[in-house]
Amino acid sequence: MIDLEREQANYLLNVLRLKDDSQLLVFNGQDGEWLTNLKQEGRKKAGLTLVEQTRAQPKPSDLVILFAPIKVGRLEYMVQKMVEMGAGTIQPVFTDHTQLHKINEKRLSANILEAAEQCGVLSIPELKPAIKLSQLLSDWDETRQIIFCDEGTETNNPLSQLSAQSTEKFALLIGPEGGFSAQERDTLQSLSHVTPIPLGPRILRADTALVAAMAVLQATIGDWE
Question: Cα angle vertex 72, ends 172, 123, to 5°?
Fold first, then answer.
């Protein structure tokens, strides 16, 4: 028997209105997915009885997502999509044109967990504290290649740049709503462990760019192969 926290029990019993002995799939981010039976012990108290494991715990994703925070509603959408599409580490980055300079880490962590629950993602991504881009680049492990979404590239198709990658450790960098500053672009383009890629001929919002970039990356050098 696993005792549920009061908030969890209230949600199952009074919001979802589940009955005693209802079956649930549960996970804790470490021991895979399990089929359980709900055991009601009061109006706001309940526990779960383990029945059997339904999925083994997968290997954690190694993909790091670096992103400039945007307006709160779309920020939460971005974080949810990162979880759904296979992020292993989520790292907010402050750039010259970043409009949001205060991160509610508790709220973002709740968004990460909610997205994992809704999509059955058993390996929960790690949320790292926000950091300035200059500090991030100064401390970066150069064995991990940064894929930099650069709207100023000369081509529209990212496949050639991605297919040419020889390393297996990647990070994806998504810029702010106003784009990277000229100085930031010059710095990024000067680093051998940074690869700029385009995202087609159209101007994309930051949240759209994230989804497009993750789809292309996962399909070419990620875990869709």
Answer: 50
- Name all domains of the chain by residue range, CATH numbers in brackets: 2-55 (2.40.240.20), 64-220 (3.40.1280.10)
- Give the whole-angstrom CA distance, residue 27 versus residue 163: 35
Beta strand 89-94 with 126-127 is parallel
The rounded distance, in Å, linking the Cα atoms of 138 and 81 is 28
Query: What's the CA gap between 54 and 68, in Å, rounded?
Result: 37
CB 166 within 8 A of CB 192: no
Rounded to whole angstroms, the Cα distance separating 141 from 155 reads 28
> 3-state secondary structure string, 111-171?
HHHHHHHHHCCCCCCEECCCEEHHHHHHCCCCCCEEEEECCCCCCCCCHHHHHCCCCCCEE
User: Residue 171, exposed/middle/buried by CB under 10 A (0-12, 13-18, 19+)?
Assistant: buried
3-24 burial, b for 16+ CB within 10 Å, e for fewer?
ebeeeebbebbeeeebeeebee
Burial label for 202, CB within 10 Å (0-12, 13-18, 19+), is exposed
Per-residue pLDDT tens for 156-206? Answer: 889 888 988 888 899 999 999 888 999 999 999 999 999 999 998 888 899
